[in-house]
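pinging the channel bc i need a second pair of eyes. not urgent but kinda urgent?? the chain im working w is below, pasted from the shared doc
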Amino acid sequence: MHRARTVKPLSMPRLAAASLAGTAIEFYDFFVYGTAAALVLGPLFFPTFSPVAGTLAAFGTFGVGFVARPLGSVLFGHIGDRHGRRPVLVLSLLLTGAATVAVGCVPTYESIGTAAPVLLLVLRFLQGLGLGGEWGGAVLLTAEHAPADRRGLWSSFPQIGPAVGFVVANGVMLVLSATLSDAQFASWGWRVPFWAAGVLAAAGLWLRSSLTESPQFLELREHARVPLAEVVREHWRLVLLTAGALAIGYAVFYAVTTWSLAYATERLGVSRTVMLACIMAAVVVKGALTPLVAILGDRYGRRPLCLAGCAATALWMFPMIALLSTGEPLLMFLGFLVALIAFVTMFGVIAAYLPELYEPRVRCTGAAVGYNLGGVLGGALTPIVATAVAEQSGRVPWGVAAYLTGIALLSLGCFALLPETRPVAVVATGPATEPATG
């Protein structure tokens, strides 16, 4: 048996900062692709398609990353449950960073024909594979070091990382979009954010080099031999419930940050600079609110906040689509802002909630698989479905609002079937509370 290591009080801020930086870098890689898909990848890699079909094809390659994420959570979850949470953080960051840099080097369809979209597809798959491992490793390393009464707060820092990664990715795109001509941006400007991922990945590896292994992992007397088999056999119902519960968070986030960007620039004639600014401003507020929501989760519980955020999302989708359809920057920002506040009310506590639902021996696999399956249900399909539905709609795509509302109601039902976990401490011998396993 391993001897547990003592965690000094100052270790938590340092660990939280390293986890935040790592998730920010990995999600930067993931988000910069989504922005490029909305703005430029369709004409460059699918030029024989119509504009709408090209956008759909670009979003298809975007969706492949989400399909790869559950596979990444299985691969890296196995490593995390068998060999520790820390190795996952290094390997996933290396894979995602290398794939992202490579995307920036892929020749366009004009240069190498059909090989161009094929390479894009493969690299996007590798991006998703790496990100599928990142979330579980970063969140678990933080959650399992944190004191039980502040687990929500400390675990929320990796959840701030996606907002930081999104703002940085889109900030770079915004600067390039504002300073380059359309021809320059399409020729080489869109590649710059992908190349920058190499520098960010090196910085992330340096930050993570000093992290120690999770004390709860070191205390485990027995590790699962095949974590995925145990999760499927004993926790399948919990995995499906968590995936369904999280689907609306992904759907709303990517409807706001990816689909709306393409819709407003192509259908409403809004400049990409204005759209990027509106979306980024809403995401900044969302990121700032994340630790505040987590504190509420530590005090009042995870499940009530998830239910409230899900219900608010269901009620807001029609107003959000109406505000987006005006094409007015302030009204679009308001629509995005309220939607992302509802989103963060759920996802601000998820980093503490999911690990508490699974027992430690399979936690890295179970929590990550549930989290990333939610991404397939909500994130992979939403830009594609919303683009197709909007194409058949008038100026106001009410069908998109109905689609998002339907997912919100599904997620609300799944959250209602999950148990509360706060404030019971998670110990190495079993789950904090009896989860809703199958």
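so Residues 11-45 form the longest helix (35 residues). and The chain has 18 helices and no strands. — does that match what u expected or am i reading it wrong
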